[in-house]
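Changelog-adjacent note: as of this version, every example in the card shows the full chain rather than a window. The one below runs 137 residues end to end.
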Amino acid sequence: MLIPKKVKHRKWQKGRGRNVRIASTKINLAFGSYGLKVMTPAYISSRQIEAGRRVLTRYVRKGGKIWIRIFPDRPITKKGNEVPMGSGKGAVDHYVAVVRPGTIIYEMDGVPEEVAKGALILASHKMPAICKFISKE
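Full-length structure tokens:
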């Protein structure tokens, strides 16, 4: 699974800018000919990114190249079970990648379009957001 090697701050605050904004980076295909674009805002965990990557590699077998464009760098904390209220913030549980509408999360090249479309649509079923297949035309 993807996690940061080193972080400046172990626990993050939630912040205020949680309204829906459109992505300004990672909006065009940069490496491959086909991609998976997110249409709704979401937190995508490192487990979900890994599940999508496994689907892609198993579907295309030996052919093709896959790029993961997002990285989970935001820590999510959680308190233990049956812990009383108070006594501070919980420990870091997992890491997520914050994606906005329009962000490309996976790219693929070196396979026919129908193979890439099938693989990327299967990977979209693993994501917590609505995703769309795109191609460079």
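Structural remarks: The helical segments are 46-60, 113-124.
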